[in-house]
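Lecture 7, part 2: worked example. A protein chain together with flavin mononucleotide.
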Amino acid sequence: MTLMKEIEERRAYRALSPDPLPEDQVERLLTAAHHAPSCFNKQSWRFVAVSGDALAGLRETLSEGNKWATRAPLIVAAAQKPSLDCRLDEGRDYAPFDLGLAVMSLVLQATHEGLVAHPIAGYSPGKVRKALGIPEDYVVHTLVIVGGKGSDELLSDWQKERETGPRLREPLEKVAFRNRWPDPVSG
Ligand SMILES: Cc1cc2nc3c(=O)[nH]c(=O)nc-3n(C[C@H](O)[C@H](O)[C@H](O)COP(=O)(O)O)c2cc1C
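Predicted complex, written out as structure tokens:
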């Protein structure tokens, strides 16, 4: 058995094509997100899918290192408000957790359809809220940069290297244990 194709193929690619995405594809990506599980089925996630002329304001919110994202034909702003979701003891605020599950569903659906979907944190959340009319009490947790694969002309040297470099991960034994922390997964 190998890992699911989409999990293997997904990478945080940055070389994008500006070609617009069909409307039904955008809707499918949002539906994939919305099919995610959530605590008590709260569905506290909120998404704003931005394309065409509406992208101009959003591009200005990106950090210098995320210039590559200005080529994307679609950016999905993903927001959450903790009070809309389960808030349990020991700091278990489930709104960001549920939003993460939903974003991963969107990312895997996009990968399945041959697209790049790359969540980022490098932007000004206040400016994004203003540009998109997102209410003050929502946290804009990520922008998902979406598009077909394309040119690497806006990438820095290290970003170009990462396009073809190996997936970098800690050893599995550092992050996952078997039966009891910190017993090893294998061996
Ligand atoms: C929450 C989050 C924030 C990220 N922010 C950025 C970002 O601002 N700019 C960027 O180029 N990549 C960003 N990334 C991509 C990560 O750097 C990338 O996923 C990581 O290096 C692992 O590489 P891989 O996804 O190709 O396996 C972000 C990823 C996540 C999940």
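The first strand starts at residue 16 and ends at 17. Residues 11-12, 14, 65-66, 119-122, 142, 167 surround flavin mononucleotide (CB under 6 Å). Keep this in mind for problem set question 3.
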